[in-house]
Design brief:
The protein is built from 23 helices and 22 strands. By secondary structure, it is α+β, with helices and mostly antiparallel strands. It folds into five domains: about 140 residues, no CATH class; about 160 residues, Sulfite Reductase Hemoprotein, domain 1; about 80 residues, Alpha-Beta Plaits; about 160 residues, Sulfite Reductase Hemoprotein, domain 1, CATH 3.30.413.10; about 130 residues, Up-down Bundle (Four Helix Bundle (Hemerythrin (Met), subunit A)), CATH 1.20.120.330.
Length: about 750
């Protein structure tokens, strides 16, 4: 309508809850700039909005353009240049189960052009990432995403990360049933859930439609769910074979079987109960042991199951647990076009090789899934628009990202495959080899990650180039092996689950630091990451391509019959595997060959001196700290209302801020305190005022009386003086609540 600003237009399209969240984040940015919000709290806040710091010391971006030599520290937003406010970072964008529409992809392309470097990066959790984003741009970026139904909330931080699922769910021949609606329901249920706000570390969930393939990778997840069916009294029932406590990282853990058959109606409440047990008993002090895998290992799976069962019994009933079951068919995909066979249509050059690796025949006759292979998971904004146009013409909204950093188009009529290939090829998106040894997964490494030791992306690009050049002559035995690369030991590139994995490290040789990669062999990508590989030895980065050649040649010539790579590595043993790569572990002197002392994609001499502190999950922030920060934000909004002379609103928000602070303390003793003012005040009075826990030596319980007075005698109206007074009282009450929480934490420690 005339006179409407673009922000107002966006607000009209945004779900109210998403709009409010972004407003809150923008206000927290203001508070941090003013020094009114602690940096530790703000760091966790922005991480939970998917806003990361980014490394700038690599000297070269993925596209070969020299980058700035800047830092992105998080210590003090009031410092001068090279602070969080001055150096661009990264924005992660959640795409639950990888579900994507052409319109959403177009908006992502626009954002990449306007705020980033015109590159969209697909992650191993089916997310998108935009790099080189300035933090001041993030609220507007988030609003434009929210208008398209996309959130960045809890894309990072100590929270439930993006819920992943098989990208061919619903069209797969081997699946028991389509897990899509269940993944959607659980992702929605857990997003922002109060029981998921007090974790010591991140929590990852994955769904798979079958046990045999790798699409869900449930064995390496905190909570993994595999579709199962059973027959009871002649009726088929759906459920999930459920696993808990999986994870990679430096020391990987295989998930433990939690339930042979978790009925579909129990999915959401059981996940909630698991989250509560993790929040209550999980490690909070030592981040290195704060994942749920350590809790499961410490307690044992039987005790963990018992605790979850007990927790499940006391959960307040929630209609959301089963409401979604009445709408399972609402998500059902529909083909844009009728199925037509390919028959004898003419095929462009290269089509057959591409179709052999990038086309999957759906269980629905006449339809296929097309995998668009994205080298390094990267897609330019121009390519993204071409891809969205192809989707509109041939498959509608049936698109998904994959955990192997690709994009799939579903429900493609087979007759359209040649033309789709022509258009993809014209946009530089027609590369074959999806799901083969050429399709290498890599984490960001030293390109942008503060924890990166070696250039995982640079190495992946080199291996892809070399393997792609000889792809036509690759022996069938190695064609479908998986290579995965991490820039450090944290396994963001999933190297433990690869047939051939690498993770970055370094060695000091004659006073020089030399980039190396540890070689990991024998992981099992199939059976949902059914086994993890073993470290064989560390080789200089420059020799890794030779390592791939030596290992694959060894396997081709020495395998017995149709022996799998995993069985081969298990049979020959670790000693023999190490002996094969040992000749490649030697490093010549700097004078003899200086190339060994540089990393892939970076002409500078190698150093790890620019590494920073990782931001994968931020510092551990207690639930009370986090909620008290919310109280401070509410008190700040009261000040804004006072400034705008809206005294009624100022009074209401000041009172609300005291209620939030009181509830933050009560929740340290009673997690399920109702969000009702009378109950909050009565529980606070009993637990903290009458017990004198809230008292300090100076003010005793004085500041609590501000809350009691305002709660007991609400004003008929409000004037400037009364509103200002209550705002000041609210600030004193919140400060006292902080002090109380600090004292309690000190006593526990």
């Amino acid at each position: 309508m005339p006179g409407t600003t673009w922000k107002q237009a966006l607000e009209n399209r945004m779900p109210p809850d998403l709009a409010r969240e972004i407003d809150v984040f923008e206000q927290q940015m203001q508070l941090r700039r003013q020094g009114k919000l602690d940096e530790k709290i703000f760091a966790e806040t922005r991480l939970r909005r998917g806003v990361y710091g980014q490394r700038y010391d690599n000297g070269q971006r993925h596209d070969g353009v020299a980058s700035q030599s800047l830092e992105f520290p998080c210590d003090d937003a009031t410092k001068g240049p090279e602070t969080i406010w001055d150096a661009p970072g990264m924005q992660r964008i959640k795409i639950p189960f990888g579900g994507l529409t052409p319109d959403q992809l177009d908006v992502l392309a626009d954002l990449a052009d306007e705020y980033s470097d015109a590159i969209l990066h697909v992650t191993t959790r089916q997310d998108f990432q935009l790099h080189y984003i300035h933090i001041d741009d993030t609220p507007d970026l988030m609003r434009r995403l929210a208008a398209m139904g996309i959130t960045t909330r809890e894309a990072c931080g100590n929270s439930v990360r993006n819920v992943t699922a098989c990208p061919i769910a619903g069209v797969c021949h081997e699946e028991k049933f389509d897990v899509t609606p269940y993944a959607r329901a659980l992702a929605s249920f857990l997003l922002g859930h109060p029981d998921c706000q007090d974790f010591g570390r991140k929590f990852k969930v994955a769904f798979s439609g079958c046990a045999e393939n790798a699409c869900g990778l449930v064995a390496m997840h905190d909570l993994g769910l595999v579709a199962e069916t059973r027959t009871v009294d002649g009726s088929a029932q759906r459920g999930f074979r459920t696993y808990v406590g999986g994870g990679l990282g430096a020391v990987p853990h295989q998930a433990k079987l939690f339930d042979e058959f978790l009925a579909e109606r129990d999915l959401l409440p059981t996940a909630q109960a698991i989250a509560r047990v993790f929040a209550r008993l999980g490690e909070k002090k030592n981040r290195n042991r704060a994942r749920i895998k350590f809790l499961v290992a410490k307690l044992g799976i039987d005790e963990f199951k018992r605790l979850v069962a007990e927790e499940r019994k006391i959960l307040p009933e929630d209609a959301a647990w089963t409401d979604y079951l009445d709408h399972l068919d609402d998500h059902a995909e529909r083909p844009l076009k009728d199925a037509t066979p390919l028959n004898g249509q003419s095929r462009p050059d290269g089509f057959d090789g591409w179709a052999a690796t990038n086309v999957y025949d759906q269980k629905q006759d006449g339809f296929a899934v097309v995998t668009v292979a994205l080298p390094l998971g990267d897609l330019s904004s121009a390519q993204a628009r071409v891809l969205s146009d192809i989707a509109r013409d041939y498959c509608g909204e049936n698109m998904r990202t994959t955990v192997e950093q690709n994009i799939v188009l579903r429900w493609i009529s087979r007759a359209d495959l040649p033309e789709i290939y022509r258009r993809l090829e014209g946009a530089g998106l027609g590369a074959p080899g999806a799901g083969t040894i050429v399709d290498i997964t890599a984490c960001p490494g030293t390109d942008t990650c503060k924890l990166g030791i070696a250039s995982s992306r640079g190495l992946a690009a080199e291996l892809r180039h070399r393997l792609g050049a000889k792809s036509a002559s690759l022996d069938q035995a190695i064609r479908n092996l998986r290579i995965k690369i991490s820039g450090c030991f944290n396994s963001c590139g999933q190297h433990h689950a690869a047939d051939i994995g690498f993770y970055g490290n370094s060695r000091k040789i004659s006073g020089y630091t030399v980039p190396h990669f540890q070689v990991v062999l024998g992981g099992k990508w199939t059976e949902n990451a059914g086994a993890y590989g073993l470290a064989m030895g560390s080789v200089p980065s420059r020799r890794v391509p030779d390592v791939v050649d030596v290992i694959t040649d060894w396997y081709i010539t020495q395998r017995q019959g149709d022996e799998s790579f995993q069985d081969f590595i298990a049979r020959v043993g670790k000693r023999a595997a190490r002996q094969i790569i040992e000749p490649l572990m030697e490093v010549p002197s700097h004078d003899d060959d200086a190339s060994y002392y540089t990393d892939w994609g970076d002409a500078r001499e190698f150093t790890i001196g620019d590494m920073g502190v990782g931001e994968c999950a931020g510092e551990v922030v207690s639930l009370a700290e986090f909620e008290l920060a919310g109280a401070e934000r509410e008190q700040f909004e009261a000040q804004l209302a006072l400034e705008e002379r809206d005294y009624v609103q100022a009074d209401r928000r000041a009172y609300s801020s005291m209620l939030q602070a009181a509830r933050a303390l009560v929740k340290t003793q009673w997690l399920d305190v109702p969000d009702e003012p009378d109950r909050i005040v009565s529980e606070f009075r009993r637990r903290f005022y009458e017990s004198e826990l809230f008292f300090d030596r100076a003010a005793r319980g004085k500041f609590a009386e501000y809350l009691f007075a305002r709660h007991g005698t609400p004003p008929n109206g409000a004037d400037e003086d009364a509103a200002r007074r209550l705002i000041e009282e609210a600030q004193l009450f919140i400060e006292a609540a902080h002090a109380c929480e600090t004292r309690m934490a000190a006593e526990i420690n």
